[in-house]
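The freezer alarm interrupted the setup, so I double-checked each line after restarting. Inputs confirmed:
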Amino acid sequence: MKHRIMLVDDHKLFRKGLRMLVESLNRYEVVAEAANGREFLDLLEHELPDVVTLDIAMPEMDGIEAAGLAIRKFPDLKIITISTFGDQDHLRQMVVIGVKGFLLKTADPEEVNTALKTVIAGGTYFATGEDPGEP
Amino acid sequence: MDSTQPIPGPDLPLINIRKLQTFVMLGIDDYVEMLGDLMREVPEQLEQIRIAIEQGNLEDCREHAHSMRGILGYFGCVTMTRRLASLESRTSLMPEDAAATCEEFQTLWHDSLVAIREWEKSIPEFAGIAGKSPLQ
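Predicted 3D structure, all chains:
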């Protein structure tokens, strides 16, 4: 059975790319997408995925506030923050809130797969170091 | 696109080839669809940045630069990503620089597309891409 993933990012193009990438790994199914924190919280009322990938900078409600509210309501919810290089400044805050992972948007498919597998298995995955988008 | 434009040399890594290889895995149809989306979106975002600079609206400028940086980084457009990071970190804007800044980004975007087109030609899996890719 495939693991169920929810994608939350205000950038439609990025959601599309991530959906293609995640589904190409054959172990995961994207069950829902949201464009901001508020939509994400609404979706959670109807669909509890195995993992959520959550952007930080979004209109209406950002990822930090949304993650806090979501984890308060669903303490077992597994969230991986996927954001742009430089957003690691917010990482400490997200860890305190209870997110289980952090990835850069430039992460390659292998790293995305590793992060999803690790977090689904109950672990944590926090990408550090240089931007893999750099050559 | 003007095919007479020079292809950037290794001293100017406009694109990250390793990152673009991801799209070979996704398949040509998905790649073509995403590239088409990107080619529609970048000029729109650049226009928003130009307006924000003209208006001296630092917050809007940062927001659009950040958003664009994320998606261009995902596509491996390294030089544009770096320049956008620099724009995003500015603490003030000079409205009179709006046109020149956007022209610089438009040139970089054009050159990045030339580099992507050359990459497409080098990928055997994309041999049938002619007539499909927005760049061919």
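Quick read of the result. Residues 11-33+47-126 of chain A form a domain with the Rossmann fold fold (CATH 3.40.50.2300).
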